[in-house]
Amino acid sequence: MVNDTEKAIGEPERLLIDEITRAFEGVQRSTGISWREAEEIDCHGSEIQRQLARFQDKDICWQDVSGELFDQLPSAVHFLDARGLFYYLPAFMVSDIHRAGKWESAVADGFLDILKDSVRLEILLPLLDENQKRAICHWIDLFCRR
């Protein structure tokens, strides 16, 4: 079933979702900054406020992350550490495919800005294997063709 924010997708998009899912299978946030924690960092929250925000992020794997979260707190992407970005990137890419790039916020620009930032990218790249890099490149290609 497709909800209000999701669009029907074609075979190429389904194949890309499968590629992303396979490439990022088993990726966990572990000690990485969580999405709500990143938002709290943006708001200059205290350590206790950050911990409380992190506790609100109940997802166990990136497949559990709702695309709605990205729209609700779009600036959080800029405050993720490398591990947090590694965790949320596949969730965002899959959500973006389902939404055909239609977001209520500038969160897509935030992810793209990070992927274009050589300093941030240099920190992220050691976490990525070749299949993950390829999946990201394929998503960027799709994003640019829209």
Describe this structure in words.
With 146 residues, this protein is mainly alpha-helical. The protein has one domain (11-25, 33-145). It is 60% helix and 0% strand. The chain is built from eight helices and no strands. It has helices spanning 11-23, 35-42, 47-56, 67-72, 82-98, 107-116, 118-124, 130-145. The chain starts with 10 loop residues before the first helix and ends with a helix.
Mean pLDDT: 92
Query: From the helix content, strand content and strand pairing, which structural class follows?
Result: mainly alpha
Strand content: under 5%
For the record, the count of structural domains works out to 1
Largest sheet: none
- Contiguous low-pLDDT stretches (5 residues minimum) are 1-5
Q: Using only CA atoms, what is the Rg?
A: 15 Å
> What proportion of the residues is helical, as a percent range?
55-70%
Number of strands: 0
How far apart are the termini? 23 Å
Topology as a string of helices (H) and strands (E): HHHHHHHH
How many helices? The count is 8
- Principal-axis shape: globular
Descriptive keywords:
146 residues, 0% strand
Short description:
With 146 residues, the chain is mainly α.
What does the secondary structure layout of this molecule look like, with pairings?
Layout (H helix, E strand, L loop, with lengths): L10 H13 L11 H8 L4 H10 L10 H6 L9 H17 L8 H10 L1 H7 L5 H16 L1
Helix pairs in contact: 1-5, 1-8, 2-3
